Amino acid sequence: MNLIITCARSLESETKNEISKILDELGDQEPEILNVGMRGILMVNTVIEPSKIIDYVKNKMVEEPWLIRYCLRIIPIQMITETEIDKIKQNVIKLKDTIQKMILTELQLRNETQTYRPLK
User: Fold this and answer.
1) Does 74 or 119 have the greater pLDDT score?
2) Residue 7, by phi and psi: left (phi above 0), alpha (psi -120 to 50) or beta?
3) Cα separation of 120 and 113, whole Å?
4) For 1-78, CATH number?
5) Which residue ranges make up each domain of the chain?
6) In the β-sheet with 41-45, what is the strand arrangement from edge to edge?
7) What gap in Å lies between CA 78 and CA 92, rounded to an integer?
8) b/e string for 22-39 if b means 16 or more Cβ within 10 A?
9) Over the stretch 20-71, which tens digit does the pLDDT of each residue have?
């Protein structure tokens, strides 16, 4: 599984259809989408790179926000590890460049959207 999708409770069926359509547009006609036994949460296994899905949805939200109605959060799973501190450290080191890029992008977005007022 490489995505967790959250949605409003009891709208899992509509959310499945929505994420299926998104993945189909990106080239995965047969994703595995599962109810995990908790209302409002779906797990997805797709051949599409999770970061590509996130970028696609971000663009859709800007261009056509009415198309994304049911997916509340799309959480990429980049790596699964055991809960041992050394293994967690090893995997963080593997993801270090990705984490740094995400932090820098977030800081740039914050700087672009903030307006600064002079101190009184």
Assistant:
1) 74
2) beta
3) 22
4) 3.30.70
5) 1-78, 81-120
6) 32-35, 41-45, 3-6, 73-76
7) 11
8) bbeebebeebebeeeeee
9) 999 999 999 999 999 999 999 999 999 999 989 999 999 999 899 899 999 9
Q: In a 3-state reduction of DSSP, which class is residue 117?
A: coil
Give Rg (Cα) of the chain: 17
Which tokens sit at 111? 């700087």
Q: How far apart are CA 82 and CA 111, in angstroms?
A: 36
- Whether this model's pTM surpasses 0.90: no
SS3 for 81?
coil
Distance CA 92, CA 47 (A): 23
